[in-house]
Amino acid sequence: MIILGVVLLLIGLFTSLSILTTIGIILLIVGVVLYVLGAVGRPLAGRRHYW
């Protein structure tokens, strides 16, 4: 999810499509939050890792 967010963010910035930039930022933030919660061992929705 983090990689997809970065790719969409870069494509949105290079092509000046604001919707891709917005979706990329949202995916990047959600991916980082899920990664951090999984890394500290906090269960999220009954699972220790989201992947």
> Averaging pLDDT over every residue, what do you get?
85
* Proportion of helical residues: over 70%
The proportion of residues in beta strands is under 5%
* Structural class computed from helices and strand pairing: mainly alpha
Give a topology summary.
Elements: H1 2-15, H2 18-39
Helix pairs in contact: 1-2
What does this structure look like?
This protein has 51 residues and is an all-alpha fold. It has one domain (2-39). Helices cover 71% and strands 0% of the residues. The protein has two helices and no strands. It starts with a helix and ends in a 12-residue tail after the last helix.
What brief labels describe this structure?
2 helices, elongated, mainly alpha, 51 residues
Question: Nutshell version of this structure?
Answer:
This protein is mainly alpha-helical. The chain is 71% helix and 0% strand.
